Predict the 3D structure of the following.
Amino acid sequence: MMGKTIIRGLAGTVMMLLLSASLYGQSVIRGVVVEEGSGKPVEMAAVVTAGGRGSVTAADGTFRLETNESGRVTLTVSCLGYSPVRREIMLPQASGEVVRIEMRTGIVAGDEITVTATRSEVAIKSVPARVNIIGRASIAQIPAATGDELLLVTPGLNISRSFGIFSHKSSVTMRGLSGNEQGRVLVMINGVPVNKSDGGSVNWNLINPDIIERIEVVKGPGSSLFGGNAMGGAINIITTTPEESFGGRVTLGYSTYNTPSGSFALSGRTGDGEGRLYWMANGFYRKSDGYITQSEADRLANPYVTKSAMKEMGAGIKAGYEINARNSIELDMLVYDDFRGSGEIVYQPLGNTVDHDTWQARLLYRGGAGDLSWNVNMFAAEERYKKVNEYIKDDYTWYEVLSKRGDLGVLSSATWQLRPSNRLTFGFDLRDGSVDADDIYYTSTDIVTNRGKMLIAGLFLQDELSLADGRVRIVSALRFDHAAYRDGAFIITAPSGETAFMAHLEDNNMEEVQWSAVSPKISALYMLNDNSRIYVSWARGFRQPVLDELCRSGRVRGGFKLANPSLGPETLDNFEAGVDLAVSSVLSASLSVYHSIGRDFMYYVNTGDSIDMSFGLRPIMNRENISGVAITGAEVQASYQPLNKLAVTASYAWNNSVITEFEMGDDYPADLSGKYLTDVPAHSASLRATWSESFGSATVIARYNGTMWINDLNQYDEIVGDDMYPEYLTVDLRLTGRYRMISAGLNVQNLMNKLFYDSKGAVCPGRFITFETSVKF
């Protein structure tokens, strides 16, 4: 009943938007941005009007920008590696007129466009928050094999991918939040969330890096716009939209451990003006013999150790139809299939493996009339997760995890330009997620089932106000979310000694639970000059429990966790200040400092009991709302371009994440007050240097990751042999070369072959070398 009421409300909202749209005139600016002297097209240049409307140039340097302005209009153009340009034009343009803008090489300005920070297009320098954008030029220069590895040089982000391409999952967190908790950072593809309602996790492996146009990272609580999963921040991966009539790229590669790979992308666009159709198809494939991940001690003790082989493939389409300058529809879909071994074979053909069979789809309607623009995004996704577990410990055990995880929903937003200095953005979101999973034991009679559903609905309103000729900007937002957990169950069928210790957790009909939350935000900035600014903000983040925490007991990283259907939501209040300075034409710097206060923080707490998990005794943990957490941190980044061909970026981040209050009664072995959060490096840093030529480029990246606490008690761990994961420094290298339609690249990840280990004592792949060659047409 509640779902039907919400859907009717959404339909009413959409109708209101359509009926209230007026038919005022709309100007379209067409242009091309090229490099001064050479005439070379400048890709990923941000083009912004004084009124805040913006666009980004395509691979051929062209752009199309829609605005309500008329008469004399000033365009500001900026791009990585070029000095910003201002150009005045008269609107409306003459029929067929194309504005040509030339740019000189130089340091970066802050006029890049973001759509994630405010759910509408706006220049980064106008957002009173810390936003990082990884554009197409940077993506081509970073030595990365997966999408999340493109984020490794972004300050304040913590990427947990112990085994490179052989990792079946990866977590990307930020700003002192526990490094194994992907659910606190929202990840989107083209504005659609891909965090699963089941566990909040993201399958980063299914994202094809070759079609990523840019990645937008918005730090700090984003719950006022996006709801629960954005409590710590938001990451939006935006894929390429075709601008040329026809083009394509085919890439072949070969990597360490006998790892062949290949990918392709074909795209096209037909027509001109109204009624234009565009499309793109892409696919990728990779397989590898793998390597032995286990430590030397485990290899000697376990005769069933083998290489952790892998194979994956994916394909996708993206198609759109532009009805007119402001109305369009777009569809994209992807499918993904893989298996990844965990390095042990007893009797099963592939041994212990993990599979993620996934499909997801999105349908977008984007429209506008007069001072009103809107979009409605509908999405659906399903992952069929399979994990094979077999081992011999006294006797042989074989069981499989079969889990069906589904999500569907609709996201809607509208932006109303009240006047040039003020606009409102508002909308309604609805999402329904489910899990239906079985652990089936083939060497005993047990079947362990967990299932549940979660419905989340949210309403939000944001006001953006410019004062003092745009030098002062105030952004405030408020969102209301309501979440409902239903149809939850944890069932053990035909239990034996394998699952007897969980018998007291069985619940065939868990109580339905509902939560509501209000997430406000207020922020302001002051422009010191065109390229320097200061900002302050306060925001409250909120996150409801995920299904996995409410209805599943089972293995997790570092131990065994118990379901907790009485778990409640958590909140995070973040206070932040930042400054961006253009020190000179070749040097810029930024600094952010923040303090976050978490309440009812969801955290794995050691119960004092342990269980034999085949590789040794591990703790039994319960997910609980601990009383209080405080996170204090700072990020600093500097960019230096002493020569037109050389760009250097350095960054450093510091975090202090500590439990301030702990009130859990007498059921736990120790008071956690004063203990540090696990999997959070106190110090991290990176240095990146790129030399660019017309025929190619060379990039070197050095990354430092500081020590991290292993467990909640901050005490010695017998498997790792320490109380903290040790610090490490890695160096990566990428060399590229181009000649006409052909390009080649060499990636060397972990150049110094630095080995580091995870909580099971498993080791990283060490030096990983990839050679690839591409043909672009």
The chain has a mean pLDDT of 88. The first helix runs from residue 2 to 20.
